[in-house]
């Protein structure tokens, strides 16, 4: 089957996400205006965006990954790389995937291990019933006081 490119290639799943992005997304875009109203985006958020895109790229929502990667690159919302002098440089999604080979598409799911550690430290009200979406003692984001982080 011939390789397809472009966002309109909807019938066959691409083998590489970068090949499916519009060419404009591969250029260095202007800084996002949204960041000026909210302030700078923390590294943890940038890494989370990358992990979400990585997770979506290997599943049934690969088109959502395409759109997300396009916006991450357009608004420079990917972690920057530092050179040997400490200067920050923008990176593309594919560069991040290549330089982080240890990060598998399902890496985001490893966060569930945190729940087991938390359960030992701060037990939930009902065992084995925890979620990121619940509140108080059932939330994976709970504190010892029963509040959310």
Could you explain the architecture of this structure?
The chain is mainly alpha-helical and 149 residues long. It folds into 2 domains: 17-105, no CATH class; 106-149, no CATH class. 34% of the residues lie in helices and 3% in strands. It has helices spanning 34-38, 43-57, 62-74, 93-99, 112-121, and strands at residues 81-82, 88-89. A two-stranded antiparallel sheet has the order 1-2. The chain is elongated and about 45 Å long. Residues 1-22 are annotated as: Disordered.
By secondary-structure content and strand pairing, the structural class works out as mainly alpha
- Averaged pLDDT, please? 74
Major sheet: order of its strands? 1-2
Determine the N-to-C terminus distance.
49 Å
How much helix, percentage-wise, in residues?
25-40%
CA radius of gyration is: 19 Å
Please report which band the strand proportion falls in: under 5%, 5-15%, 15-25%, 25-35%, 35-45% or over 45%: under 5%
Query: How many structural units, i.e. domains?
Result: 2
Specify the biggest β-sheet: 2 strands, antiparallel
Apparent shape: elongated
Total of helices: 5
